[in-house]
Amino acid sequence: MDTTGHSTLAEWTDGDTEATERAVAEFRRELDAGYYATVTEGEGQARQVTELPLDADLVILRRPIAGG
Amino acid sequence: MAASAPLPETAAVHWRPRLTADRLRSRGRTWTLTTAAHTVPFVGTAGLLAALEPLSFPVGLALLAHAWAIPELYARRGANVVRPKPRAEEEPERVALGLLGDLVGHDARELHAQTGLVPERGALGVWLVGEAGAVLVAPGGRRVYCWCVQVPEPGLPSGDRIAHLLLALRTDEEGFATVANLAFSGAPWRLRRRMPPRARPALDAGVRLSRVSSPES
Questions:
Q1: Residue of B4, B83, B91, B172 to mutate when probing chain A, most A C-beta within 10 A
Q2: Domain boundaries, position A41
Q3: Mode of pairing for the β-strands spanning B118-121 and B126-129
Q4: How many structural domains compose chain B?
Q5: Cβ contacts (< 8 Å) between A40 and chain B: which residues?
Q6: ipTM of the complex
Q7: Rounded Cα distance, B182 and B26, in Å
Q8: What does the pLDDT look like over B12-45, one tens digit per residue?
Q9: Domain count, chain A
């Protein structure tokens, strides 16, 4: 999620090794830049991940929150 | 709402105890006692003055005005957490709204379109998530907690701001409440009249949901 609304950083499919490697590298880069990765797990549930879950439909990267 | 690992942002407020349901209730009671401690002396003094010297009633009225204003100011501070912020450009707002819409159900989408707040049931109660904060309606619907919490990132569209908070809330509800700063706690009616009129139906819906989903504990 960013100032454009959101940007797609990577897409991959089972068996596409090259796309998967690109996705993992992009994922790592965003985490290093301070993003947190979240996988939604049905209504009302989400899980934070530190490794790219290759079986997930969607991984959302969010910025840290803070008390105002 | 199932908690997985603790929200990493809690490390930034390591001195705060994790906000469990018991601690939340305790904070609500403390908030009420503090408000009473601020207002009762004014009311008491006004009563005493009236008894000792009825002609001092102008001073008594001023004291009563103070007693009335203090809780109102607290409620106003609470309402500020759901006050809408300046919009980003139209296209990012539209894109962000699409993603937010994918994260929530039909009813929540409708309520957001109507009020700017997204309802979310949690273990602590029913949350109404806005761009720069959230209101938690406690089980039973008799008390609300207003939390100031946001993404300190300029330029994000409104829908993204809500989606950030929503994802953090879903990841770890108690951690979310621990990170957030409590701006107000009290009766829903007190908050309602200080909220922007557009947001009031969200509070009404939150109170209804909290009464349906769980009896007061």
A1: B4
A2: 1-68
A3: antiparallel
A4: 1
A5: 103, 167, 170
A6: 0.90
A7: 13
A8: 999 999 999 999 999 999 999 999 999 999 999 9
A9: 1
